[in-house]
Specification:
six-stranded antiparallel beta barrel; conserved putative lor/sdh protein from methanococcus maripaludis s2 fold; Elongation Factor Tu (Ef-tu), domain 3; alpha+beta; 347 residues
Length: 347
């Protein structure tokens, strides 16, 4: 009887242990099967290629006259005649106005007498009938009178010193001119110039002669070309910018002083990788940009940090992180992470 009880007890314990062991294995298998495997994500890729990337920056500026002249006589007097109006285009040397001519006409008569006397003394000097000192004194007096006449004529018959538009007229015919304001202002608009404030970080990039393009709000659709004509040698300590003077030919005189302009300065061309916008991924809370590159086996991706350069429409210049020839994911970035399994569907 004792042997039978022990044998039954052992068999029962063995059965219990077998049952426990079997249940534990099933639980582990169930736990493992409850964690879903990461899906293989379908992506489209492209091969990174190098392109010419213009190095340029846009700035705001205002069109200015290339030169501005305020025209007036050296002293007051009555204005005899006004020949031009505001808005007229005048040529260099064109008569704009005439002042009272009384003093000029008197001096002209005196000069004519001096010319005759000078010619007579010169002839006598050549014959030896007049001493050299007398002749030189007469010659000096004649030259002084001629200089005085030329100066008075310039301040009586007012001419334009340049080609340009009359942008101001402050007196009328018959007025007594005073020195409170110029009689005329004439501005040269062929060419025009613009003063562009450029960041000091680009000081070493800008060179005299660099090509620029510009647009103005007043003339939509028009693009004008010019060049950097002068670089100012100092940097503003407040704005940390320096001025570049841009010259635009403006042969048709359509650009006018005061127009608001956007000036694009080109510094040269870089050979860089260029990728479309949708290639780039940005982690939340971080400023770093990434792209996903295809691994050598073509089955997984690597999250690669990149440094971006200029924005080119719907693409970016890549300064570092990606080399020419690498394969980059261009579509299907959603849910990707470093090491994700992928299936390329456009190869």
């Amino acid at each position: 009887m004792k042997m039978n009880c022990k044998t039954g007890l052992s068999a029962a314990m063995l059965l219990l242990m077998t049952a426990c062991g079997g249940n534990g294995g099933n639980q582990a298998e169930q736990t493992a099967s409850s964690v879903p495997a990461e899906p293989v994500r379908k992506v489209e890729v492209m091969v990174a290629a190098v392109s010419d990337v213009p190095q340029e920056t846009a700035y705001s500026s205002t069109v200015e006259a290339y030169a501005t002249n305020n025209i007036m006589p050296q002293q007051g007097g009555r204005i005899r005649k006004i020949n031009v109006e505001v808005g007229d285009y005048v040529n260099k040397g064109q008569v704009l106005a005439e002042m009272d001519r009384l003093q000029l006409d008197q001096l002209k008569l005196q000069l004519q007498n001096d010319e005759l006397e000078y010619a007579r003394l010169k002839s006598l000097f050549e014959e030896g009938a007049v001493s050299q000192s007398d002749f030189e004194a007469a010659e000096l007096g004649y030259k002084v009178r001629r200089t005085n006449y030329d100066n008075l004529e310039e301040n009586t018959i007012l001419r334009s010193p340049l080609n340009g538009f009359v942008t101001a007229r402050n007196f009328d015919s018959g007025d007594m001119f005073s020195m409170t304001a110029p009689l005329f202002t004439v501005q040269q608009v062929t060419p025009v110039k613009l003063l562009v404030g450029i960041s000091e970080s680009e000081y070493t990039l800008v060179k005299k002669g660099d090509e620029v393009t510009l647009t103005v709000d007043a003339l939509p659709g028009r693009v004008f070309k010019g060049r950097v004509g002068r670089l100012y040698p100092t940097i503003n300590p407040v704005t940390h910018t320096f001025q570049a003077e841009v010259t635009v030919p403006n042969a048709d005189r359509i650009l006018r002083p005061g127009m608001y302009a956007r000036v694009t300065v080109r510094y040269g061309v870089n050979r860089s990788v260029v990728l479309p916008d949708q290639c780039f991924y940005k982690q939340e809370g971080a400023g770093q940009r990434f792209v996903f590159t295809l691994s050598d086996d073509g089955k997984t991706v690597n999250m690669t940090p990149v440094t971006l350069g200029r924005h080119l429409g719907d693409s970016y210049e890549v300064l570092s992180g990606i080399s020419e020839g690498q394969t980059v994911v261009v579509k299907g970035l959603g849910g990707l992470k470093d090491g994700s399994s992928v299936e390329v569907i456009n190869q």
